[in-house]
Structures are given as C-alpha cells and as structure tokens.
Amino acid sequence: GAFHEAHRMLGQDVAAAARLFHDASDFDDRIASVDDIVRMEALLPAATAELRSALEGSGGAPPSEAAELPSAMLEQALRVSYLEVARAALILRNFARFRREQGWPFRLDAHSCDVALRSRVHAILPQPDSHGRAVVVFNAGRLDPRVCEVKEFHRMASYVLEQLTADPAVQHRGVCILFDLRGADVAMARHFSRADVRRGIAMWRDCFPCKVKLLTVVNASPFVHAVFRTGLSLVHPRVRARVQLVPDAAALRGAIAPCALPAELGGELDSEARWNEWIDERQRLEREAAEAPLAHALGGR
C-alpha cells in the first residue's frame, strides 16, 4: 500500500516536471529546414534591431537591463524563438533578472566554475548526435555537495549551456540532454534546499535561449524507471515523445558515434581526460582575452 502510493505520487511529480519542461521555451519540437534557416539569417539584422528597441523600452514598455546584452545574445534568442521578437524579449528579460537575482554576471567564465566543472556533473560530448544536435551529459551520481554547494553546480550548468549554445548551428538545431543516473538515488534529494529547487526550476523556465530537443534517461534503476514511465503516461504524447528512457548504455550507440561516447557509457571516449582538456582550453582563452588589452596598451607605448 505505502509503496504503491509513493510510486503514484512520484509519478505525478515526474509528469508535472515533464509538463514544465515542455511548456518552457527551452523545450522545442519544431524542426527548421535549411530554407527556413537561410530565411531567418537574412531577416536576423532587422529583427535584432527591433528586439534591441523593444528591450530599450520602445512602444511604452519599460526598459530592461537586458538591453545591455551583446548583439550575439539577442541573435541567439531570435534564432531559438524563430524570429518571434516578443518571445525573444521575454526570454532575455527573464535571463537578465535571473542573473541579477543570483548575483551572476551576464557572461560566466570557466575560472569561476572550475571546481564544479572538474566534478564532471556536466560534460559536452565532442560530436553531435546522429541528427546533428549537440549533446550534453548530466552525470547525476557525481552531484556531491561535499565538492561544492548546489548553487555552484547550477552556475556551472549555466556556463556549460552558454558554451554549448554559442554556435549558431546549435542554436538552430538544438540540444540533447543525456541524463545518466548511474550512482544516483532518491536519497540525493535531501541535499537540495527549497532555494536550490526554485533556482533549478527558474533556470529552465523561459530564462535562457536554447532549444532542448530531447531528454534521454539512461542507467535508471528499475524503481526509477517505473516512476518515470508512470509519470510520462500522464502527459500528452507530444511531451512524452521528447523524453526517451533507454534500458542501458548499449542503446545509445546508434545515436552517438563510439568515438564521442564516454567509455563508461559503452563508447571509446576517455571522457575525464577530454573534459579536463576542454576546461583548460577555455581557461587559456579567458586568460588571453584578459591580457590582450594590457598587451595592446604596452605595445602602443
């Protein structure tokens, strides 16, 4: 009795989370054709000017701090929103407000996220999946609050998403999240405060311009797998199609090339070495960017 009631309640929680995930602008199931992309890129400069004007407060709307965002961020929001200026403006206003509330800058950096990054809770795979979509792995079992606070893991996840979606091709084609539940259990929930939960939800609720095309769950225990299936049975088929439960890592090989799939998921990639190289390279680029103005000033003497 108690077990079945817990199973039912958890299933309802999964259903609610799936609906939230789908209702957010980040969860997208439209596919832009090559012709659509060409047309969008041709119209992008005019749409960017219109979006900038809207954020600055034209038409009687109050100005937003998002008006300070660089043009590249405005373009990203427009690509993700299929040039719907009102939608892009909503996402960017929410983005600016969320970053201010968290005390985070508009642009995060690898140095400030170093400890959380090297935990490998998140990692970007070096190649897209078979549909050309970028893939980021969420290793739930590595989320250890003894390494750093949950807020720092959230900050790191936001940085990884920034880096993953900086490429216009990714903005058009979208992102897949590979949710690896090895080593994770329900008891991990005790590490999340109410503020952590609110922050985690807010990060995905119209707060960052990204098309999430698919969530693939792998290595779930039989109990968690059953909970997910129960929850997904309660939602619309359109939502259900966006969440994929695979029985084991072997099922990933057709979607992700072996050379890009981590060895722990049945592939050939040394994910720890490759991810540390990725972090080191980002930090090197950041140092060079910070030193460039000084070098220019000294060179001009």
How would you describe this protein?
Helix content is 50%, strand content 8%. It is of the alpha/beta class and 301 residues long. A 5-stranded mixed sheet has the order 1-2-3-4-5. Strand 3, helix 8 and strand 4 form a beta-alpha-beta unit. The radius of gyration is 20 Å and the shape is globular. The N and C termini lie far apart (80 Å).
Biggest β-sheet description? 5 strands, mixed
N-to-C series of helices and strands: HHHHHEEHHEHEHHEH
Mean pLDDT: 85
Low-confidence stretches: 13-26
Radius of gyration from the CA trace? 20 Å
> Strand content of the residues, in percent?
5-15%
Record field, number of beta strands: 5
| Structural classification | alpha/beta
How many individual helices? 11
User: What's the end-to-end separation, in Å?
Assistant: 80 Å
Side by side, the strands of the main sheet go 1-2-3-4-5
In helices, the fraction of residues equals: 40-55%
Question: What characteristic shape results from the CA principal axes?
Answer: globular
Summarize the structure.
With 301 residues, the chain is α/β, with parallel strands linked by helices. The chain has helices at residues 2-23, 34-56, 71-80, 85-102, 114-118, 150-164, 168-173, 194-202, 222-232, 237-240, 271-299, and strands spanning 122-124, 134-139, 175-180, 212-218, 243-245.
